[in-house]
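Hi V.,

You were right to ask for the full record rather than a summary. Here it is.
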Amino acid sequence: MASEISPTPEELADRLHSAAIHLLRRLRREDDASGLNGPRLSALSVIVFGGPLSLGDLARAEQVRPPTMTRIVDALVNLGFATRRPHPTDSRSTLIAATSAGRKLLLAGRQRRVRALARQIAALSPADQQQLFNAVSILNRAISGI
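Predicted structure:
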């Protein structure tokens, strides 16, 4: 029986990083049905799950400059997926919030991605599914401090 060589944390992190990128690329195909491009969907996600928030905070979260975020928010507002409203304590600022249509669009996209991933997981053996479940639990513990 050949002995197993345990990977170093760096090797494991590299493999996990690669798998995560490939997983996200495959699931991103499901986002085409939303009709929004990646930057708009990403900003809408931050607004839905973290909003309402200022344009500056949204730009920082998305790691883009405020003029870029202004264009993205303008598009989301024009499409009816987000609104601007006055900031309650800073009259110079506005808050960006998701509309019910924006929340619905984003949640429908999440359901499409989850269903696509579930189809792939269903093809695994029950033992592999259990191992994957355990691995996700371990991963969640490992990244909770990041």
